[in-house]
Structures
1.
Amino acid sequence: MGDTSISAVPGTRELDTLVRLYGKPTCVVSDNGTAFTSRAILKWASENQVEWHYIDPGKPQQNAFVESFNGSLRGAGQSGR
């Protein structure tokens, strides 16, 4: 499976692209990973007036939709084995 991680600065460019395509969210929910707690992400959220909510550490069930999607994505990458 390929690397699915993305660092903060390229992540902000991806967020800009998603906002252009789908509109600006009112809130983003994420884990406390380094890419999501960086100054670049916090600056992007502030400049775009997007609330950023972090789930509690060790509580992936608070972000169950994304965790389910990630599991499906990982599973899809392994189907050709």
Note: DSSP finds three helices and two strands in the chain.
2.
Amino acid sequence: MRLTRADLIALDQRWTARFNRASRNHFWCGFFTQISRLGNGRFWYVFLAALLATGGHAAYRPAAQMVVVGVVGLLVYKLLKRATSRPRPFMRSDAIHRAADVLDEYSFPSGHTLHAVSFTTIALAYYPFLAGLLIPFTLLVAASRPVLGLHYPSDVLAGAIIGALLATLSFLVF
């Protein structure tokens, strides 16, 4: 059986609606809203500050690498959002509830996921002992996007792939 573009869009829509059901529960909506806010940069800013405050000179390289990848990731994701102009899930379906504010109009790719994956990949290359903190946080950030009705799973997957690629390529530069 071959899936058509329409089949893939419908599948993406159904999975988003499934994830989004969690946002109708007050606890889960609040939980994922907070995770999303932290993933919007706050967590990473505090992480970088703590890294620089506790890591001495050895922290300069990973911190600089994360900052450069963060800026490049921002440019890439903004370019892709403008180029694809994919409406957010809640804009296309009444079955999907917008449970949080959006930063911009378009959904592809997930910038939250792109940055969480790229920063986590870089941080774990230098500090593997942080995996128990960073991997669950990154997974929660990624999950928060369709739960809140802001992204399709394919947006999240694309953000994760782009973030991993940018982080991997950054090791060639740093």
Note: The two ends are 45 Å apart (CA to CA).
